[in-house]
From TrEMBL:
Coiled coil: none annotated. This is Coproporphyrin III ferrochelatase. Involved in coproporphyrin-dependent heme b biosynthesis. Catalyzes the insertion of ferrous iron into coproporphyrin III to form Fe-coproporphyrin III. Belongs to the ferrochelatase family. InterPro entries: Ferrochelatase, Ferrochelatase_AS, Ferrochelatase_C, Ferrochelatase_N. PROSITE patterns: FERROCHELATASE (PS00534). Its EC number is 4.99.1.9. It is an enzyme of class 4 (lyase). It holds the Pfam family Ferrochelatase. Pathway: Porphyrin-containing compound metabolism; protoheme biosynthesis.
Length: 305
């Protein structure tokens, strides 16, 4: 019996500073960024990577760890993982084509983001579905796994560990769950994304015994249209006015160390918090955490069944 293909999808990141322009051009649907836009994005990458570029390796490690977990769970050779990225090679279509070249007849598509939105995960799945149809591959699709017990357990441990980082300031600290903002029009579409993020946050808070928490958005695009808010920088200002002195950020919409975490939170949000007199720490990201890999593997196996 041929292996079941597993298309592991994520947003993608350039594999070097030299690749930032091509990456940004792809995000902008083939329109090259202005010189100022390119300089801004490149400077953000330079600020977090300092000449080394580990971001792509995070995704590679996740896919390798998922392959090992599936081998342990279902036996070697039952599943075969392929990468498909939205904005960088190997693109989603490349991943499906690689499956077809290997003779894969049935596959599962999963995005590393746990919560579903038609605008994000839905777009990945559509591309995967269309390419799978072209190659005659039967494709099962995972829309979300935002309440998987092992995902919640992994994040609960990180919240508890993150509160320890606050030291003496942990008493009275607020846990601020966050995720990537999307255009506000998704609310009119009854998109499940905001509610699924709240469900994830609520489950983690309950598991970790956290009473004081709220949700905020981050990393909104600059498209001239309204995006979901409030943004984390505005939320920090509100918290400062309310007298909050310590915040633990838990970016539950993200699963690895990348630009939106290492720059938007660790540099930008931390700087703003310091200016406001707030001690801000962040939870460790999931990356290739064993419980997270178990959650993915279990979800994949159930999708096939």
């Amino acid at each position: 019996m041929s292996a079941v293909g597993v298309l592991v999808m994520s947003y993608g990141t350039p594999d070097s500073l030299e690749g930032v322009e091509a990456y940004y051009t792809h995000i902008r649907r083939g329109h090259p960024p202005t010189r100022e836009q390119l300089e801004d994005l490149t400077s953000r990458y330079e600020a977090i990577v300092g000449g080394v570029f580990p971001l792509r390796e995070n995704t590679n490690r996740q896919v390798e760890a998922l392959q090992r977990t599936l081998d342990e769970l279902a036996g070697e050779g039952r599943y075969r993982c392929y990468q498909g990225l939205k904005h960088a090679a190997p693109f989603i279509e490349d991943g499906v084509a690689a499956m077809a070249a290997d003779g894969v007849k049935a596959a599962v598509a999963i995005v590393l983001t746990p919560q579903f939105s038609a605008m994000s995960v839905g777009g990945y799945l559509k591309r995967a579905r269309e390419e799978a149809e072209r190659h005659g591959i039967l494709l099962a699709e995972v829309e979300s796994y935002h309440l998987h017990p092992e995902l919640i357990s992994a994040l609960e441990k990180r919240v508890k560990g993150g509160l320890e980082k606050l030291g003496a300031d942990r008493d009275g600290a607020l846990v601020l769950f966050s995720a990537h903002s999307l255009p506000a029009r998704i609310v009119e579409m009854n998109d499940p994304y905001p509610e699924q993020l709240l469900e994830t946050s609520r489950a983690i808070a309950e598991a970790a015994g956290v009473d004081r928490w709220q949700f905020t958005w981050q990393s909104a695009g600059q498209t001239g249209q309204p995006w979901l808010g409030p943004d984390i920088l505005d939320t920090l200002e509100s918290l400062s006015r309310e007298g909050t002195k310590a915040v633990l950020v838990a970016p539950v919409g993200f699963v690895s160390d990348h630009l939106e975490v290492l720059y938007d939170l660790d540099l930008e949000a931390k700087k703003r918090a310091a200016e406001l007199g707030i001690h801000l720490e962040r939870i460790d990201m999931l990356n290739d955490d064993g419980e997270y890999m178990n959650a993915l593997a279990d979800t994949i196996v159930k999708a096939v069944d």
